[in-house]
Amino acid sequence: MLNEGDGMTGPIPVSNRAANIEYAIRDVVVPAVELEAQGHEILKLNIGDPIAYPGLPTPPHMVEAYVEALRNGKNGYSPSYGLPVLREAIAKDEQRKGWNATSDDVYVCHGVTEALQLIFAAVLDEGTKVLAPGPHYPPYMAYPQMYGAETVEYQLHSDDGWKLDFGDIEEKMDDDVRLLVLINPNNPCGTVCGEEDIDALLAIARKYPNCIVVADEIYDGLDFTGQHVSVASRSHDVPVIALNGVSKVYYAPGWRIGYMALHDPAKRMNNVRDGLERLLRSRLCASTPAQIGYLAGLEQDRSWMDGYATRVKQQRDHCLKRIEQIEGLEVEQPGGAFYMFIRLTDEAWANDDKLFVLNLLHEEHVLLVHGSGFSPRLGKGHVRLVYLADVEVLDEAFDRMDRFLQKHRTTNMS
Ligand SMILES: Cc1ncc(COP(=O)(O)O)c(C=O)c1O
To answer: Cβ-count burial of 395 within 10 angstroms (0-12 exposed, 13-18 middle, 19+ buried)?
Structure first.
């Protein structure tokens, strides 16, 4: 038994794995919540959740199906790989995207985020690498280190539409890279890759027999270029894991339903598939009624999606016009998703994008996310803005950003 003073008062150690995790998008919410508690109203343009903004609700027929499922007692566990009807509907949807998916290739998860954790757990070991775009959605950096792996970033061209730098990818590929990630359309930059880019990426991956391409296509229904194609549809040999779900283009992120679909034309993922299935069984299943809600989204009329996408595109165009008129801001036109990765051209802010975000929040009550939170090196000097808010809110936010930039520019120069 320990006596007083034997060390019972010190903190119990946290694992390094958890202590190193960062998620910039939610980390900046902490000071915003403090300001709200003091009675300030914050214009929040930080979170990629369509439900956080008015006018883009989850389609009623999906909500109805979810509610009906609850009423009909569909409240039990379901099969670990997903409800068979949903797996079938997802496979058909992937077939429409141009490859021969079957329901056995589809595994339903608790969002793409869980799929990522399972893929990393099934593929990564000490000393292996993930090659992911920089900047990128933060879990691609945060999770692999839990398995002793490292995420290396390949560069996106910040002054040319954030296109992929294939020379950089070639240079950074080696036999330890087990996962080559493409986020298409990209979060946070909005880049859309078409056939040519995807073929070039697959040509590189083909040279490395232990490499799987992870194709995060969760924003594929928000492509304003008309160029988007599924990676699996372009691969005749390279193994691809396609990721998608209900969060973004079905406007129901809180349901936590997503999937991974394994395209394995050369039958090289059998062991990985076995590992994934073991992991899936060990975590029981994804939410049963939410899967039924998603099924309604896949099986019933989807014409509503175009209306939503048109609205999002109009808001993008409006923001592009506003940014053009503001000294201190520049942006590459995003081709898809609902993000803008805005360049801060005033030197002081270009060197400290987090300070920009925090000062803008405190002085003008506008919340963005610092670009360095998406990549300390390649996202630096930028901020991410979600353009899903009403045009009036976006206008007010841009007025405040303009005022803030002018005020500090005068101070700097005096
Ligand atoms: C590129 C990307 N992948 C995955 C996710 C999360 O997907 P889910 O809600 O299905 O976990 C996000 C969320 O912002 C994202 O931007």
So the answer is: middle
- Judge if the beta carbon of residue 402 lies within 6 A of ligand 1: no
185 lines ligand 1 (CB under 6 A): no
CATH of segment(s) 19-48+304-413: 3.90.1150.10
Give CATH 3.90.1150.10 domain extents, the chain: 19-48+304-413
For residue 245, the ligand 1 atom closest to its alpha carbon is: 10
Q: Write down the pTM of the prediction.
A: 0.94
In 176-285, DSSP assigns E strands to 177-183, 212-216, 240-245, 258-263
Pocket flag, ligand 1, residue 336 (CB < 6 Å): no
156-174 pLDDT, tens per residue? 999 999 999 999 999 999 9
> How far does the centroid of ligand 1 lie from the alpha carbon of residue 4, in Å?
48
At 101-113, the pLDDT tens digits run 999 999 999 999 9
User: Would the pLDDT of 1 be above 60?
Assistant: no
